[in-house]
Amino acid sequence: EEKESGSNLQDIFKIPFAALFVLTFICMGASNSVISCWLTTIMVEQRSITAAQGATAAAFYFGGMTVVRVLFGLMPDKIKTKHIIMCGVVLSLISNILLFVRVNDIAFVYFLATIIGMGISPLVPFLHHSIRELFDEKNIGVIVSGCNSLSLVGGAIVSAFASVAAKLIGINNVQILWIILLAIGGICYMRIVIAKEKEKNIKIVIKPF
Predict the structure, then answer these.
(1) CB 60 within 8 A of CB 182
(2) What is the reported pTM?
(3) Which sign, positive or negative, has the C-alpha torsion 159, 165, 171, 175?
(4) C-alpha distances out from residue 22 to 26, 43, 149, 186, Å
């Protein structure tokens, strides 16, 4: 009996762009983990806010995540998945870069935490959603498996690296790390989307009448 394509995890490297998609998932999932773990610490360290204010900033961060997920949950088919993901990446990058701006106004800190949460919120859920749009039905199982298993390993490695980097070369480098992860994830995702759209257009052009 012929083995179905994509039935095993190792077959992920045989599926066009599947390994790149898993790398995208790892980068965005790891950036989510690092931001969630380190955002409050960075704000307390860099902006000299109190621990209580840092905890409030964390509440705004998770509040921003919740609001965006509820909104997109209520209108899942109104906006294209690729637009949601890229808007999330751009918003996350801009807000994380703004985190370098040394403004100690507590209202600005809370606003920034909210925007960071809103930007990072749709990335992982909508990446899962985009698998069905980007890949054939027969390959979905192995790609989902690869994303779920390898992203946990990748996230753990990146989180451990972030902890070591914070101690050895300063906490600012943790912030740079998650900006790099977001940028890599965004670039990889757009590479896949562009390639898949080209494939779709070619199929439409050569389709016989």
Answers:
(1) no
(2) 0.79
(3) negative
(4) 6, 31, 10, 12
Say if CB 161 and CB 181 are below 8 A apart: no
Residues ≥6 apart with Cβ < 8 Å to 11: 5, 142
Residue given tokens 């257009």 in the structure block: 201
102: its two tokens? 């040394």
147 close to 132: Cβ distance less than 8 angstroms:
no
Q: Which positions ≥6 away from 152 have C-beta within 8 Å? A: none
pLDDT by residue (tens digit) across 121-130?
888 888 888 8
Angle 93-76-116 from CA coordinates, rounded to 5°: 20
Structure tokens at 197: 């759209």
pLDDT confidence tier of residue 8, bands split at 50, 70 and 90: low
Q: Is 184 helix (H, G, I), strand (E, B) or coil?
A: helix
CB count within 10 Å of CB 137 equals 8
Residue type present at position 10: Q
